[in-house]
Structures are given as C-alpha cells and as structure tokens.
Amino acid sequence: MNNKLKDIVEVLTKRNQTISTMESCTGGGLANAITNIEGSSNILKFSAVTYSNEYKIKMGVPKEIIDKYTVYSIETARAMAKSITNFTNSDYGIGITGKLNRVDPNNLNGNDNEVFISIYQKENNKYYDKNIFVTKETRIQNKEDVINTILDILLNILKK
C-alpha cells in the first residue's frame, strides 16, 4: 500500500494537484493512509468522516439523493465525491459509503458488506465508480481492501 501511496503523492505533487476525501465506512482510513506518506500535506486538502446522513447532507450531499437511492448507493458516493471536491476546490474528490461487517439500524436498505466508491475528477467533470463486496473477517481488513481498491483506481486515473 505504501508504494502506491508514495506514487500518488509524487504524481499529484509534480502536477500541483490536490485531493480531498469524504469517507463513511472507512472512517478516515484513506486520509490516514495518505498522511502517513511524507509530502502528503502538499496534496491532501481536507478529509471529512461523515458517518451519519445528517453530516453527509451538511457537507453538501443532496438529501434527495439519499432519499431516492439510499445512503448505500453509487449515487450517494458520487455526490460525496463531488461535494468534497467543490467544498475544498480540489482536483480530485473521493466519496466512500457502504456497510462493513454490520447491519446499520438507521439505514436498513442496501446489501451488507457492499461498499460504493466514487472518484471525481474536476478537470474533466468525470466520475470513476466502483462497488465492491468485502469478505474479510474484520472491519480493519475490509477497510484495507477498500483503500487498496481506491489506490488502484486512482493510480490508473493518474497514469492516463
């Protein structure tokens, strides 16, 4: 994971580009992983952990999207990614929402252990979306899988 992160920080630094994250089920794990890399302060503008629907909405996710598609949807992940990009004026925004090894009594819709990821690229107004099912025994292992998936997607975007 560290080599991927170093590559991402290096590429974004060279391009003078920035990234921000709005994380739910990963609980800030992606931002934490990024900040473990020297030079990350050059590229990471802001990170929000929005575990509740209330704070997703306060951070700019339209309530109508959550109401229509549920909090566990690619539409919500997209809204999270774009909202955080707009809030911070970053080049890239990452939205992550889903369920990891638990039933959410406040949001009963959606598949257990399904995570929705969206990376928004402001320059091209383009989304890179993926949903994955996490299958590890622990939340920590599942968070690592989600973060690794995001890093792979982001590296592919940056190579284009």
Describe this structure as you would to a colleague.
The chain has 160 residues and is α/β, with parallel strands linked by helices. The protein has 6 helices and 5 strands, in the order H-E-H-E-H-H-H-E-E-E-H. The mean pLDDT is 93.
Rg, Cα atoms, Å: 15 Å
Question: Taking strands numbered 1, 2, ... along the chain, how are they ordered across the largest sheet?
Answer: 2-1-3-4-5
Quaternary organisation: single chain
What is the H/E string?
HEHEHHHEEEH
Mean pLDDT across the residues is 93
Tell me briefly what this model is.
With 160 residues, this protein is an alpha/beta fold. The protein is 43% helix and 21% strand. The protein is globular, with a radius of gyration of 15 Å.
Secondary-structure map with pairings?
Blueprint lengths: L1 H13 L4 E5 L5 H7 L8 E6 L3 H6 L4 H7 L4 H15 L3 E7 L15 E8 L4 E8 L5 H21 L1
Parallel strand pairs: 1-2, 1-3
Antiparallel strand pairs: 3-4, 4-5
Helix pairs in contact: 1-6
